[in-house]
Design goal:
Blueprint (H helix, E strand, L loop, with lengths): L4 E2 L9 H9 L19 H18 L5 E6 L2 H13 L5 E6 L2 H10 L4 E7 L22 E5 L1 E2 L4 E2 L11 E4 L16 E5 L10 E6 L16 H5 L10 H18 L2 H21 L4 E2 L10 E5 L3 H13 L2 E2 L10 E4 L6 H17 L2
Parallel strand pairs: 1-13, 3-4, 3-5, 5-8, 8-9
Antiparallel strand pairs: 2-10, 6-7, 9-10, 11-12, 12-14
The chain binds pyridoxal-5'-phosphate.
EC number: 2.6.1.52
Main location: cytoplasm
Enzyme class: transferase
Length: 361
């Protein structure tokens, strides 16, 4: 069986050892005679899975005790509404930085519930950079300050966090969660759809400081109120059971096989350096992002010729390098090199790009 190198932005690759373990446990999980998919979420054995997943996430990410971890459904996109509904309740104001489509969508949703200010945007250059932020322009009494940390479509990342003082910082980390250590205590809320770097689709993780729970707007649907899930250990209703189980296996992989987030970061940096290093030396391919804001996870690049881009995507696919076509708003190519993409996958890609360049100069 030949597995391909999958450069998809999400859903994306999972570690092979995780898939093998899940396959081995598919029919009979730890002698229960059932698949994890079939178990009651209220059973004792499932309890060990969801509690184990939370404990591992807390350990691997070093999440302080005064933060709740919620395992939710609805994707990151549902949180675009949940965030203002749970937080925009004192001054009714929030600041947003628009660094791409996901931040833009989050802002549009917040604007339905309160005063959502745009403090900066990089729309003028197709989101190819992270705008410089001037704290004197921030709203002093904002209920929160919102960023999208890693911009999946455009391939930018914040290497430095904005200084928001006492205003809670809220960050969408869908495409960079678990890619490197992060100081959770600097944030009010961190959240992520799991399907980029953590698990299959169907799970959204919300990490929220306890004092920010319990102030939701009256109109907030029960299911969008973080308090509902915080008070019930993410078991108010049926959680995404199987996805949480895979997330637990992925966290075990990070902890035991990779050796934690410092190691993960080292490997991710090595992969990204290899690809960016080649892009910077190539006469055919060009990275689209300013070097100082480059993402370690999503690497967009172009040849400058749409037909040649299409040819590259086609030939890459034939060579087992799949899902490398860029987002329709950027064009060209995008290599998503999340945690589960092995170093050899990036090596294969760079080798292939070199060959393609030699033939198409
Ligand atoms: C993929 C993605 C989303 C959307 O996630 P869904 O789970 O599909 O709603 C939001 N933000 C970022 C940064 C993403 O990469």
């Amino acid at each position: 069986m030949a597995r391909v190198y999958n450069f998809s932005a999400g859903p994306s690759m999972l570690p092979e050892s995780v898939l093998k373990k899940a396959a081995a446990e598919m029919l009979d999980y730890e002698g229960s005679g059932q698949s994890v998919m079939e178990m009651s979420h209220r059973s004792k054995i499932y309890g060990t899975i969801i509690e184990g997943a939370e404990a591992l996430l807390r350990e691997v990410m070093n999440i302080p005790d005064n933060y709740k971890v919620l395992f939710l459904q609805g994707g990151a996109s549902t949180q675009f509404a949940a965030i203002p509904m749970n937080l925009m309740t004192k001054s009714g104001k929030a600041d947003y930085v628009i660094t791409g489509q996901w931040a833009k969508k989050a802002h549009a949703e917040a604007a339905r519930y309160g005063q959502a200010n745009v403090v900066a945007s990089s729309a003028d250059k197709t989101f190819t950079y992270i705008p410089k932020l001037d704290p004197s322009t921030f709203t002093k009494d904002a209920d929160y300050f919102y960023i999208c940390m890693n911009n999946t479509i455009y391939g930018t990342v914040y290497h430095e966090l904005p200084d928001t003082g006492d205003v809670p910082l809220v960050a969408d980390i869908s495409s960079c969660i678990l890619s490197r250590p992060i100081d959770v205590s600097k944030f009010g809320v961190l959240y992520a759809g799991a399907q980029k770097n953590m698990a299959p689709a169907g799970l959204t993780v919300v990490i929220v400081r306890e004092d920010l729970i319990g102030n939701a707007m009256d109109i907030t649907p029960t299911m969008l109120n973080w308090k509902t899930h915080a008070d019930n250990g993410s078991m108010f209703n049926t959680p995404p059971c199987y996805t949480i189980y895979i997330a637990k296996l992925v966290l075990e992989w990070i902890k035991n096989e990779v050796g934690g987030l410092d190691k993960m970061y080292e490997i991710n940096k090595k992969k990204a350096d290899l690809l960016y290093g080649f892009l910077d030396s190539s006469e055919l391919f060009k990275g689209t992002v300013v070097p100082e804001d480059r993402s370690l996870m999503n690497v967009p690049f172009v040849t400058g010729d749409a037909d040649l881009d299409a040819k590259f995507v086609k030939e890459a696919t034939e060579n087992g390098l799949v899902n490398i076509k860029g987002h329709r708003t950027v064009g060209g190519m995008r290599a998503s090199i999340y945690n589960a993409m092995p170093y050899e996958g990036v090596e294969k890609l760079v080798e292939f790009m070199k060959k393609f360049e030699a033939k198409n100069k």
